[in-house]
Amino acid sequence: MAEEEEAVAAARETSLQLPVSTDYKRPRSKKVQELPILERRNWLIHLHYIQKDYETCKAIIKEQLQEAQGTCEYAVYVQALIFRLEGKIQESLELFQTCAILNPQSSDNLKQVARSLFLLGKHKAAIEVYNDAAKLNQDWEICHNLGVCYMYLKDFKNASEQLNYALQLNKHDITFIMLGKMHMLEGDTDKAIEVYKKAVEFSPENTELLTTLGLLYLKLGIYQKAFEHLGNALTYDPSNYKAILAAGSMMQTHGDFDVAMTKYRVAAYSVPESPPLWNNIGMCFFGKKKYVAAISCLKRANYLAPFDWKILYNLGLVHLTMQQYASAFHFLSAAINLQPKMGELYVLLAVALTNLEDIENAKRSYEQAVSLELFNPLVNLNYAILLYNQGDKKGALQQYQEMERRVNKIKESSNNTEFDPEMIEMAQKMGAALQVGENLVWTKPAKDMKSKQRNTSSSKPLTLQQPLGSNQALGQAMSSAAGYSKSIQLSTGGSRQKPPSLPLEPDVCTDANTGESSFTPEVKDK
Amino acid sequence: MSGSENKDINEVNSKWLDAHYDPVANLYTFSSCVALADLNGDGESKLVVGDLGSGASNMKLKVFKGTSLMTENTLLDLPTGLVAFHMDQNEPRTPAIAVASGPFIYVYKNLRPYFKFTLPPLEVNELEQEVWSQAREDKIDPMSLKEMLEGIRNKAQVPLSVRSLKFLMLEHQDMESFVNMHKQQPIRRQTVITCIGTLKKNMADEDAVSCLVIGTENMEIYVLDPEAFTILSKISLPSTPAFMDVTGQFDVEFRITVACRNGNIYILRRDSKKPKYCIELSSHAVGLVRVNKNIVVGCTQETLHGCTQKGKKLWTTYLPASIVTMGLMDHKSRGFQAVLVGLANSEVHMYRDKNLVNIIKTQDVITSICFGKYGREDGSLIMTTKGGGLIIKILKRTAVFDEKDTTPGPPVAQSVKLNVPKKTKLYVDQTMRERENAVAMHRAFQMDLYRLRLTAARAYVKALESNLTPMSSSASEPLKMNAVVQGLGPSFKLTLNIQNTSVCRPSMNLAISFWYDEKLYSLKTSFFKIPLLVPGLNYPIDTFVECLSDKGISDVIKVFVLQIGRSNPLLTAHINMPVSEGMALC
C-alpha cells in the first residue's frame, strides 16, 4: 500500500515535468515555427459526427476552423455534411466546393459536390462532376449515383448501364432498388422482377426488396409468389406497413377477412392515418356484412384522403347496399368528378339513379358506361334490364345482343372463362323475356346455378358481397383487353368493391387496381 | 435519480447488480480511451480513463480503484486512444499504458511517464521545399511565392505542409512577416494518430508482450516494436482509419480489421501491403467489435451487421435508436461472448450474433463501454455517460442469458383493438329515414341545387353588370382596388390601394366617392380625384372615418371608383367596418 502511494506521489510529481512538455507546446510559446497540425482534431470531429452529436461536432469544427483559419479540409467537409442533414443544401454545396479547392485531388470532395448538386435537382451538373470524380477514382458510389442522375433525366440506357456497372463493382441493396425502379419507370415489369429477384438472392432479409418483389408479382397476377414474398417480408418485419396492406388485400380477395383484420391492426397501430388502410379495413367490415362499421371506416378514409376516388367508389357501393340511394348518389358523383373515365362508376351511378326514379339520367349514365366500358357484358345486361323495365323492348334487345357479342368475344379470347352464375341466370331470364329463344351463349352452363336471385320485388338491387376482387382486378385492369378473361369470373352479379388500394408508391401500381363492378338491378315486372 | 427509480431499473435488469453510479464523475471520454488493467501487479484491476476534459483543456489520465479516483496525470493534448499492454518480459508482470495523442504516443509505466514516441514526419513536396528555400534566400517575393504554392497545390500528389497552407490563407499585408518568421525553419509535415490497438508479438498468452498498432490520419497503419519503438510494419489504406480491431500474433499471422471514414471496412493480413478484403457499408461505422472470428459492425443507419473474417455479410439487425458506442463483453471464466451496443435512447443492448439477449436501461446516454475484470470482480461493466457520469455494474453470478431468439412473435399491436369510430343512434335513425324517403330527398336536393346555382349565377351577372366587384374587367380601364381599415375607433384610417393593371395605358380622369350611413359615420373627404395612374404601380389613398354611434354597431361603407363623364362606377368595394371599440370603452 505504501509503495503504491509512493508511486502515485511520484507519478504526480513527474507528470508536471514531463520531458515532452516544453517543446510540445504549440506556437504561442517562445518558438514560433511549430504550427499546429491541421488535422489534429479530425478524429474527434468524425467521432461526434457518427455519434450524431451534431451540436458538439459543430462546436469543435468552429474551434478547429478558427485555429486553422478555414484551411482544415475535414472540418469543412463535416460541416458541409451537417448542413446537408439540416437541409441547407446550397450552403453545403458551397462548403464542399471549398473542400474541393483545398484538396483538388480528392474524389470524395467531388462526389459530395455532385451529391449536393443532385439534391438541388441539378442532375446534369451533378453528372459532370461525377464524371470528373470518376477520372480520379472509379468506384461503386460514383456509378450508382451517375445511374440515378441519368434515371431522373429519363436517359434509361445510360442509367441502366451505370447501375449495372455499379453492381459489378459491388453489390448494394440500394443499387438493386434503383435499377428496379428504373425498369418500372420504363414500364418493363419483367426486367424489374429479374432485378429484384437477384437482389433478394443477394440479401434475403431486406424487407423492402421482398415487399417490392411481392407487389410486382401481384401486379402481374402471380399470386402464389406474391404471397410468398410478402409473407417473407412479414416474417422479418411483422409491422411492415406496405407488406401488411398488400398481404391483407390478398387475404381479403380470398375472403379471409378476420385474418386480414388482425394484420391491419398492426398497421393501424404504426400508421394510424393511412387512407388505403382504413379503406381496406372498411371493406373488410363490408365483407363481414358489418355495414355501419364499414361506413365509419370508409368515411375516415375519405376524411383522410378526400380526393381518392376509390374510397368514394367504395362508399357509394356500401351506401347502395344499405339502400341509401341518395347518399350513394353523392359519393358516386363525387367519384366520377375525380375519375371521369371509368365505366363502372357510371353503372353504379345509374343503379343509384334508377332507384331514385330518375330514369332519364340513369339511361344517360348507362350510355356513358357503355361507351367507356368496351368489354364488360354486365354493363349491357344491366342497361337491357332497365330498358326492358321501362318497356323499351327494342332498346333492351339491342343491349342484350351487344352483351352476347361481348360474351362471345371473351370466350374466344380464352377458353376457361367462368361466368358468374347469377349473371348467367339473369341473362337467361332476360333472354326469355325478350323472346330471343334459347340462348347459345352460355355453352358452359354454370356448374352451380345456385339461385342467388334475391327479391325480384321492388326497389332492391342485388348487391351481393363479393370477396374483394381487388388483386386480380388489379392485374387485369392494367393488361387490359387480353387479360380480361379472368376478371369476368370475378365480376359476379354483386356490385364489387373497389379493390383495396395497395400501399405502393403511386408510380408502382396504385392506380392500377381498377376492379370492375357489375350490378344486377332488379328485374321488375317479369 | 431517485432511489425508487433505481430500484425499478434494477428489477427490470435482474441480471446486473448496481455497484456504483456517480452522475458527476466529470468524465468526457469514449470507448477507445477506457481500459481495465492490473497496473500494480497486485491482482486488482484498475480502471484507466483518458479524459478529454473540456475538449480543449484539462485533459487527464485518470486511474480509478474501486469507487474512487486513485491517481490523475495531466495530458498535454486530447487523448485519441489508450491501451494497456505488456512491453517487456520483466517481473512483476505489470502492464504499461500507452496514450495516443496528436502525433505522439506517451507510454506510462507504473503510472510514470516512461517514453514518448513521435510519428515519423511525412514526405514533403520537393517543389514546395524548393520554393521555400528560394524564399529563404530572398530570391522571390511573397506574391510570387503565393502563386507558385497555389500552382503546386493544384497539381501535386504530395499535399502542402501546414505552413504553406496557412500562408495561402493570409491577407496580403501579413505575408511578408509570415515569410520572415518561418522561412528559416525546415518544412515538416506531421500527421496524427486516429486509433490505437495492440497485437501480441509471438505468444498468445494473456500477459505476452504486445506490439502497438496505430492508425494515422494520412491513411496508414503502423505496427511498432514494443521495446525499441521502431516501426516493424507499415500498411497503406485507401481512407483514414476510425476504428480498429487486431487479432493474432505479429510473428505468426495476424489480422487487422479497420473501419474507415469512407464507410468501408478493410481487413489486413500479415505479408500483404494492401488490404486483403473490403466490406462496403452503406453508411459510416460507429463501432467495430470482433466476436470469436466474426466481425460485428454498428452503422449510423441504426443497423448492426455481422460479417465473416473474409468480409462476407452474415446478418443484419435493425435497432430502435442510433448507436453511440459499442463494446465487447468477453466473460472468459464462463466462456460467454456478446456485443454491447450503447444506444442514443439511453439503453445498452446485448447481442449474441443477431439475437438480442439483454437490455440494460441506463440513466443517461452511454458514451463508453468496457467489460472485464475490475477490482477482483470478473464480470464488471464500466460505462461512462454523456453527462460525465460513471456507472459500474456487476454481472450476477446467477445470471443466464437465454440462447433463444427473443425478438419474434406477433407484435403487440396485433392485439390492440381497432379504433373504429362509433355511430350514434341519430345516425341510424337518419339512415332509416333516407331509406324510406330516398327519392323525395334526392329530388328536393336537386331542386335546391338548381335554385342555388341560379341564384349564384344571377348574383354574379348582376355584379358584373353594375361593376360591383373590386376588379374592373373593362378593357379600357383595367383597375384593381383593395381597402384596409386601421384603428380601433371611433376614428379609423381607411386606406385604398388602387392599381392600374393594364400593360402600358395610364388611367386618367378618375375619382373616388363613398356611400355610407350619415348617422353612423362621417368622412373627412367623401370625394376626391385620383391622379394619373401609371400602370403597375400601387397608389395608396388615405381618408379618415369617424364613427358617430356609441351603440357598438357597424355598417358597410361602399367605395366607388368613377370615371368623369360616366354614370356607372368602374368598380365598387364594400368595406365591412369594424365595431368601434374606442367608443364602447368610454
UniProtKB/TrEMBL annotation, chain A:
GO annotations of cellular component type: centriolar satellite; ciliary basal body; ciliary membrane
This protein's UniProt keywords: Cell membrane, Cell projection, Cilium, Cytoplasm, Cytoskeleton, Membrane, Repeat, TPR repeat
Pfam families: TPR_11 (PF13414), TPR_2 (PF07719), TPR_8 (PF13181)
Organism, scientific name: Erpetoichthys calabaricus
Domain of life: Eukaryota
PANTHER family, sorted: BARDET-BIEDL SYNDROME 4 PROTEIN, PTHR44186
Family: Belongs to the BBS4 family.
Subcellular location: Cell projection, Cilium membrane; Cytoplasm, Cytoskeleton, Microtubule organizing center, Centrosome, Centriolar satellite
Residue ranges, annotated region (Disordered): 446-526
Name listed for the protein in its UniProt record: BBSome complex member BBS4
Amino acid composition bias (Polar residues), ranges on this chain: 454-479, 486-495, 511-520
TPR repeats: from-to residues: 173-206, 207-240, 309-342
GO terms, biological process: cilium assembly; protein localization to cilium
UniProtKB/TrEMBL annotation, chain B:
Keyword annotations of the record: Acetylation, Cell membrane, Cell projection, Cilium, Cilium biogenesis/degradation, Cytoplasm, Cytoskeleton, Membrane, Olfaction, Protein transport, Sensory transduction, Transport, Vision
Domain spans labelled Bardet-Biedl syndrome 1 N-terminal: 16-269
Domain Bardet-Biedl syndrome 1 protein GAE: 479-581
Domain of life of the native organism: Eukaryota
Compartment(s) where it occurs, according to its Swiss-Prot or TrEMBL record: Cell projection, Cilium membrane; Cytoplasm, Cytoskeleton, Microtubule organizing center, Centrosome, Centriolar satellite
InterPro entries: BBS1, BBS1_N, GAE_BBS1, Quinoprotein_ADH-like_sf
This protein's GO CC annotations: axoneme; BBSome; centriolar satellite; ciliary membrane
GO molecular function, one term: smoothened binding
GO biological process: non-motile cilium assembly; protein localization to cilium; protein transport; retina homeostasis; sensory perception of smell; visual perception
Subunit structure: Part of BBSome complex, that contains BBS1, BBS2, BBS4, BBS5, BBS7, BBS8/TTC8, BBS9 and BBIP10. Interacts with the C-terminus of RAB3IP. Interacts with CCDC28B and ALDOB. Interacts with PKD1.
UniProt name for this protein: BBSome complex member BBS1
Species assigned in the record: Erpetoichthys calabaricus (Rope fish)
Taxon lineage: Eukaryota, Metazoa, Chordata, Craniata, Vertebrata
